[in-house]
From TrEMBL:
InterPro entries named in the record: Cyt_P450, Cyt_P450_B, Cyt_P450_CS, Cyt_P450_sf
Family affiliation: Belongs to the cytochrome P450 family.
The entry's keywords: Heme, Iron, Metal-binding, Monooxygenase, Oxidoreductase
Source organism superkingdom: Bacteria
Annotated protein name in UniProt: Cytochrome P450
Signal peptide extent: none
SUPFAM superfamilies reported for this sequence: Cytochrome P450
PANTHER family: CYTOCHROME P450 YJIB-RELATED, P450, PUTATIVE (EUROFUNG)-RELATED
Species whose genome carries this gene: Nocardioides massiliensis
């Protein structure tokens, strides 16, 4: 084990210090170099930063994804448990991403029948239409100085409209989805210090669940061509998704695909504005787009970390991760590990070596990866072509101070330089 002094230890615990939030890569590099299997005293959690460890832990079922059940049990054991909170947590607990095999295996197989790469590929024309519409509106709304908030105008609405449209939500109801998704994200990704996050999540979740349940009832009686119908009809032999699973997966898809894709779009536009030579390369060689999206996911991807709970004692790097301990698997650190990527802090669309972990790996590998890639590969080239002299107008960037995601509160851009 690396010897880390008490002073350094305290410093390395500052995972949410302003400088580590602004530049997680520099912070995580120091952590990987000095203490790659790090016990973070502040968050009482392990923090893994090497690509090899992060990838191995995600494929190792001794690291469990069932991390909501213990919170529910703790709340229930209290003298006066918050029963509304327990109800919200139980809904969350039904999400695919929080289930372990074998339950997860059956659940995912059924969902995959409906949310298949073929169905996603069929969305191309619709995603193109939505992207064009949002970019037209953004241009019309630009202020006298030509500035817009790219998050609010494009990156935030695009994925919400796409998934709502896939599920068969009518256009007039789509704004509701954006608000609920925001409320729930306060609980799942939120700053641990945010005192209102439970209340906001509870009301958002309750309204969303009511809406989704009605949508599912409707398509059971009047099937459509949408994803909600495909999920209701998904069969594997005699098996079908239960009513609870149907609600849970719709919420999980809506939610899982929203903030992440928003951040991918905004982080990518920022990276391109800061690397004009790479932006020019992509304009000149549009066929590079798929490689560019992979590199943008690696370079400054939306998921900084995923969480696991050790189901049993695990020895790693000379340390013992004890049963029940929480572990942060730092995807951002893995994606900048010099053992795997040459010059990891450079943005290079011609990079050929190394596989990033931005969508995870193993049984929980992102179910929406094909959709996220499709959305990014459609909207990014359109932004580059339409606004060739786009510049960042923010003097200082405001990153959300959370451990799990990497996202900007806003991104003010001047469309015409
Ligand atoms: C760039 C955008 C995205 C990123 C970076 C991302 C990242 C991830 C990661 C890292 C995981 C693994 C979580 C874990 O191992 O605990 C995951 C799982 C998941 N993602 Fe995504 N995601 C994105 C977009 C989407 C979209 C668009 C959808 C759906 C519409 C989606 C739905 C899901 C679901 C349902 C899971 C759980 C899969 C399972 O547990 O089997 N994601 N995502």
């Amino acid at each position: 084990m690396t010897d880390v002094s008490a002073h350094d230890q305290a410093d390395l615990d500052e995972i949410l210090s302003p400088s580590a939030v602004a530049d997680p890569y520099g912070f995580l590099e120091r952590l990987r170099a000095s203490d790659p299997v790090h016990w973070n005293a502040r968050y009482r959690s392990w923090v893994l930063t090497r690509h090899a460890d992060v990838g191995a832990a995600m494929s190792d079922l001794r690291f469990s994804s069932d991390r909501i059940s213990p919170v529910i049990q703790r709340e229930r054991r209290k003298e006066r448990p918050d029963l509304d909170l327990v109800e919200t947590l139980e809904l969350l607990n039904g999400w695919l991403v929080f289930r372990d095999p074998p339950e997860h295996t059956r659940f995912r197989r059924l969902v995959h029948k409906a949310f298949s790469p073929r169905i996603i590929a069929a969305m191309r024309a619709e995603v193109e239409r939505i992207a064009d519409e949002l970019l037209d509106e953004a241009r019309d709304r630009a202020g006298a100085d030509g500035a817009i908030d790219l998050v609010q105008e494009v990156a935030f609405p695009l994925p919400a409209i796409v998934i709502a449209s896939m599920l068969g939500v009518p256009p007039e109801d789509r704004a509701l989805f954006k608000n609920w998704s925001d409320d729930i994200s306060a609980l799942v990704f939120g700053a641990m210090e945010d005192p209102d996050r439970h209340d906001r999540a509870q009301s958002g979740m309750a309204e969303l669940v009511r809406y989704i349940s009605q949508l599912l009832e409707r398509v059971s009686v009047e099937p459509g061509e949408d994803l909600a119908t495909a999920l209701v009809q998904a069969r594997d032999g005699d098996e079908a998704l239960t009513q609870e699973e149907l609600v849970a997966i719709c919420v999980n898809l809506l939610f899982g695909g929203h903030e992440t894709t928003t951040n991918l779009i905004a982080n990518s536009v920022l990276a391109l504005a800061r690397h004009p030579a790479q932006a020019d390369l992509l304009r000149e060689e549009p066929a590079l787009i798929n490689k560019a999206v992979e590199e943008l996911l690696r370079y400054d991807g939306p998921a900084k970390a995923v969480v696991r709970l050790a189901a049993e004692d695990v020895e790693l790097g000379g340390r013992t991760i004890a049963a029940g301990d929480r572990v942060f698997l730092m995807l951002s650190a893995a994606n900048h590990d010099p053992e795997v990527f040459d010059a990891p802090h450079e943005l290079d669309f011609r990079r050929s070596k190394g596989a990033h972990l931005a969508f995870g790996i193993g049984v929980h590998y992102c179910l929406g990866a094909t959709l996220a890639r499709l959305e990014a590969s459609i909207v990014i080239p359109r932004i580059l072509q339409r606004f060739p002299s786009l510049t960042i107008a923010d003097q200082e960037l405001e990153w959300n101070p959370v451990i799990l995601t990497r996202g900007l509160r806003r991104l003010l851009v001047r469309l015409d330089g």
